[in-house]
Design brief:
By secondary structure, this protein is α+β, with helices and mostly antiparallel strands. It is globular and about 60 Å long. A six-stranded mixed β-sheet has the order 5-4-6-7-1-8, sandwiched between helices. Strands 2-3 form a two-stranded antiparallel sheet. A two-stranded antiparallel sheet has the order 9-10. It folds into two domains: 218 residues, Thiolase/Chalcone synthase (Peroxisomal Thiolase, Chain A, domain 1, 3-Layer(aba) Sandwich); 56 residues, no CATH class. InterPro entries: Chalcone/stilbene_synt_N, Polyketide_synthase_type-III, Thiolase-like. This is Type III polyketide synthase. One of its GO terms (biological process) is polyketide biosynthetic process. One of its GO terms (molecular function) is acyltransferase activity, transferring groups other than amino-acyl groups.
C-alpha cells in the first residue's frame, strides 16, 4: 500500500544565536590568528544563515555552556557533551512529535511504530523509548533507532517508515529526527572545522507516515521512490567521528563539486528505473528531495 506523510512537527531550543554574534564569538577566541579570523568571517557571512538555535545558550548572555565567564571556550570531554545531549534531546524530540501527532488526526494510541534518528549523541534506553513512555504510545509499538548516519538520516528514516507501511497496511509510524550540533563546538583555525561551526544548529523534526485511511482534512504527501548512490570519491571529504573532546566534523570545499559532478548520473539512473520525469519539476517546484 502507498505510504503518505500526513503531518510534520518541528521544535527548536529557546536560545537563538545570531550569525553575526556567533561569528564574532568564534573570531575572538584565543589563538585565532589573522588568517583564521578572515576564514571565520567569510564562512559565517556567506552562509546565508541569519540565526541558529542552540541548547548551549545564547552568545552574549554570559551563560553559555562550555565557555568560561570571559567567553573563552573550554574543551570538555565527550562524556560531558553527551550528558547535555541526554538532558536536552528528549524534550525537544517530544515537542516535535506532539506537534506532528496533533496535526495528523491520529492519537498517540494509534501509533504502531516509532523510528528515530540522531548522530550528535547517544544513550539507551534512548529517545525512541522516551517517546513511547511520555506520549502514551502503546508499549507494543515497534521501535527503531538510526544512529550516526549524519544529517541525511531523515531519508532512511522515512524510507523505513514507508517500507513498514507497505509491508503492514494500516501502520501509523512516528518518525522523529533530533540533532544538537552545538554540543560539539570548539575553537579552531582549521578551515573544515570553521565551516562546520558556521552552518550547523540544533533542532528536531517529526512526521507521521501511514498507509491507514486519513483522519483529518489536511492534504497529505504521497511518498514515492527512494534511491541511493555512492560517489566514486569523497569519503575523506565529509565525515563525522567520535573524538576525546566531542564529535569531530570534516567538511571540505570539494563536497559541492563532487555532488555537482555526480548528480546528473544519479538522476539519469533514477529516470531509467521508471520514475516519471515530469514529476521532477513543476510550476510549484520539485517534489524531489536530495541529501549528500
Amino acid at each position: 500500500m502507498t505510504a503518505h506523510l500526513v503531518s510534520i512537527g518541528t521544535a527548536t531550543p529557546e536560545a537563538a544565536l545570531s550569525q553575526a554574534a556567533a561569528r564574532d564569538f568564534f573570531r575572538a577566541q584565543p589563538g585565532i590568528d589573522r588568517l583564521a579570523a578572515r576564514l571565520i568571517g567569510a564562512a559565517f557571512d556567506q552562509s546565508a544563515i541569519d540565526a541558529r538555535h542552540s541548547v548551549i545558550g545564547s552568545i552574549g548572555s554570559g551563560d553559555i555552556a562550555f565557555a568560561d565567564a570571559e567567553g573563552r571556550l573550554r574543551s570538555p570531554g565527550t562524556g560531558e557533551r553527551n550528558a547535555l545531549y541526554r538532558r536536552a534531546a528528549p524534550p525537544l524530540t517530544e515537542e516535535a512529535a506532539r506537534e506532528a501527532l496533533g496535526r495528523s488526526g491520529f492519537a498517540a494510541a494509534d501509533v504502531t511504530h516509532v523510528v528515530t534518528a540522531s548522530c550528535t549523541g547517544f544513550f539507551a534506553p534512548g529517545p525512541d523509548f522516551r517517546l513511547v513512555r511520555d506520549l502514551g504510545i502503546p508499549s507494543s509499538a515497534e521501535r527503531t533507532h538510526i544512529g550516526f548516519m549524519g544529517c541525511a538520516a531523515a531519508f532512511p528514516a522515512l524510507r523505513s517508515a514507508a517500507r513498514i507501511c507497505a509491508a503492514q497496511p494500516g501502520s501509523v509510524v512516528l518518525v522523529a529526527c533530533t540533532e544538537l550540533c552545538s554540543l560539539h563546538i570548539r575553537s579552531s583555525s582549521d578551515p573544515e572545522q570553521i565551516v562546520a561551526s558556521a552552518v550547523f544548529g540544533d533542532g528536531a523534526a517529526a512526521a507521521i507516515v501511514t498507509s491507514a485511511a486519513p483522519r483529518g482534512a489536511a492534504p497529505s504527501l504521497e511518498i514515492g521512490e527512494f534511491s541511493t548512490a555512492i560517489t566514486s570519491d569523497g569519503e575523506e571529504d565529509m565525515d563525522w567521528t567520535i573524538g576525546d573532546n566531542g564529535f569531530e566534523m570534516r567538511l571540505t570545499a570539494r563536497v559541492p563539486r563532487i555532488i555537482g559532478r555526480e548528480i546528473a548520473g544519479v538522476v539519469r539512473r533514477v529516470l531509467d528505473e521508471g520514475v516519471d520525469p515530469t514529476s521532477a519539476i513543476s510550476d510549484r517546484g520539485s517534489p524531489w528531495r536530495r541529501s549528500p
